[in-house]
């Protein structure tokens, strides 16, 4: 049995290219070679072992983008432990539910989230980049010698990523080491990722898009990632333009591309070194595609979800304008189907539910056997998206099978928001739909029926939501009605609400 498990990319590259840059943390100006990253990963693994953490134990991380995400990911891999990246946009009650469900043995947190961390756990380890003697750095410095790495296989769990739930609570999607590996293969080849790749990482690293499009594939190949703590369009354009940084790859949801395109620096930015600029997370408007294409950078579109690690389909740059709106075709080690309500494949041009199968797909949800069973049919994952394929096999996501909408690249499930709305004493009935928004693509519109005699106002509703939901889930506006339209079984008819308030029975983005 090998001492170093075969999936340990950092150990491999530390042996082959130890002096090559692996991570440049732009916020702190720290640079880590593969030898540095390997050594710090070893010390963190030893520090976790000293705290009693071993195979199968969960370790949570609550932090803005930083190099520690990758140190923890690979340290957990060496122990067989499970990384739990936490969405720092969530409110404390939402995080409490996740921690109660996943029961981590330790919460590592950035000092900017100290208040939240102390409300969530008593087993804590603080990151403070302003102090070289922070608790995190002391733990690494005083760690005992590392033990031999645990040998794991592709079916072992690498992390659990919580996604918004259609039933009002988030579900923990199980991410295996095999899923991470196959995502590197599926994305790495069409995205032309090599040891010479340099990517600017701007999406949140708690999100599969930030961690896996393309940061992990770049590290798998032995390239370098430049991590931006929080996205700033002007700063991002400066980085891309800087020949000393040599950025070749970029990935974002449509909003960052829109904000950069609208920035005064866009027309003068030097984009000539970009080989791949990927976009996903939400449909990309034609104006954005054309704006970047006019600067010589065709955007490469794709579709995926947390449960697919995330890449499922990808559109080649050459087809970005010709097949505008398409999510491309299935990636190499992935199969897709579009089926009707009876599970039969629909013909070209027909609309049905998109199903996906392959080694990149989750085996299920943490502590949710019923949700897992419901999500699969004969090994095919139900994505919840309605789609069609044209005669050439290009996939188009045309509707939401459920009522989810996307705000700024983040999925928002109405049931989760509605659960919070119903906590308000003056609310008799409530629903939420996504409505078009120039900045975020879609935002929430809360439609509320007041209890008799109540004087509930829009500000009351939004203030309550701000205290109990992540900001991107909070409705941007509220309307009050006498009654909500329902069908015979009592289900709210969202399509009628869309007709009334949007002018169409389709979701805001289709």
From TrEMBL:
Matching PROSITE patterns, A to Z?
Answer: AMP_BINDING
Q: Which reaction does it catalyse?
A: 3-(methylsulfanyl)propanoate + ATP + CoA = 3-(methylsulfanyl)propanoyl-CoA + AMP + diphosphate
Tell me the keywords, alphabetical order: Ligase
Q: Where is the AMP-dependent synthetase/ligase domain?
A: 11-366
Q: Which GO BP terms, alphabetically?
A: fatty acid metabolic process
Where in this chain does the record put each AMP-binding enzyme C-terminal domain?
A: 416-491
The EC designation for this entry is 6.2.1.44
Q: Which Gene3D superfamilies match?
A: 3.30.300.30, N-terminal domain of ligase-like
Q: Which GO terms describe its molecular function?
A: medium-chain fatty acid-CoA ligase activity
User: Which family is this protein grouped under?
Assistant: Belongs to the ATP-dependent AMP-binding enzyme family.
Q: What is this protein called?
A: 3-methylmercaptopropionyl-CoA ligase
């Amino acid at each position: 049995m090998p001492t170093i498990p075969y999936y340990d990319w950092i150990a491999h590259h530390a042996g082959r290219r130890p002096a090559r840059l692996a991570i440049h943390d732009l916020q702190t100006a720290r640079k880590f070679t593969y030898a540095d990253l390997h050594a710090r990963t070893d010390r963190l693994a030893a520090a976790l072992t000293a705290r009693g953490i071993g195979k199968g134990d969960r370790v949570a991380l609550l932090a803005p983008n930083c190099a520690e995400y990758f140190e923890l990911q690979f340290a957990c891999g060496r122990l067989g432990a499970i990384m739990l990246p936490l969405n720092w946009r969530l409110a404390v009650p939402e995080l409490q539910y996740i921690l109660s469900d996943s029961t981590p043995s330790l919460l590592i947190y950035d000092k900017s989230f100290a208040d939240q961390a102390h409300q969530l756990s008593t087993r804590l380890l603080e990151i403070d980049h302003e102090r070289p003697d922070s608790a995190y750095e002391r733990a690494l410095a005083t760690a005992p010698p590392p033990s031999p790495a645990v040998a794991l296989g592709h079916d072992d769990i690498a992390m659990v990523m919580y996604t918004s739930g259609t039933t009002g609570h988030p579900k923990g999607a199980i991410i295996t080491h095999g899923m991470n590996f196959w995502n590197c293969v599926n994305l790495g080849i069409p995205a032309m990722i090599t040891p010479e790749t340099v990517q600017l990482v701007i999406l949140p690293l708690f999100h599969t898009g930030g961690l896996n499009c393309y940061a992990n594939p770049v590290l798998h190949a032995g390239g370098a990632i430049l991590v931006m703590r929080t996205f700033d369009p002007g700063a991002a354009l400066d980085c891309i333009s800087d020949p000393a940084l040599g950025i070749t790859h970029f990935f974002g949801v449509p909003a960052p591309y829109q904000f950069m395109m609208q920035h005064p620096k866009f027309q003068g930015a030097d984009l000539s070194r970009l080989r791949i600029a990927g976009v996903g997370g939400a449909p990309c408007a034609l104006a954005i595609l054309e704006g970047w294409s006019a600067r010589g950078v065709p955007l490469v579109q794709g579709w995926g979800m947390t449960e697919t690690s995330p890449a499922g389909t990808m559109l080649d740059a050459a087809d970005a304008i010709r097949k505008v709106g398409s999510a491309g075709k299935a990636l190499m080690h992935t199969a897709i189907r579009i089926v009707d309500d009876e599970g039969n494949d629909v013909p070209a041009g027909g609309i049905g539910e998109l199903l996906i199968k392959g080694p990149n797909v989750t085996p299920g949800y943490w502590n949710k056997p019923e949700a897992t069973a419901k999500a699969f049919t004969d090994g095919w994952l139900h994505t919840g998206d309605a789609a069609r394929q044209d005669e050439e096999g290009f996939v188009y996501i045309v509707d939401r099978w459920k009522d989810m909408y996307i705000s700024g690249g983040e999925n928002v499930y109405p049931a989760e928001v509605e659960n919070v709305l119903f906590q308000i004493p003056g609310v008799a009935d409530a629903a939420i739909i996504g409505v078009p928004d120039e900045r975020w693509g879609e935002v929430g519109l809360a439609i509320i029926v007041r209890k008799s005699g109540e004087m509930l106002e829009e500000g009351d509703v939004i203030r309550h939501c701000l205290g109990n939901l992540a900001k991107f889930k909070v409705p941007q506006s509220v309307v009050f009605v006498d009654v909500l339209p329902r069908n015979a079984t009592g289900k709210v008819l969202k399509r009628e609400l869309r007709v009334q308030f949007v002018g169409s029975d389709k979701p805001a983005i289709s």
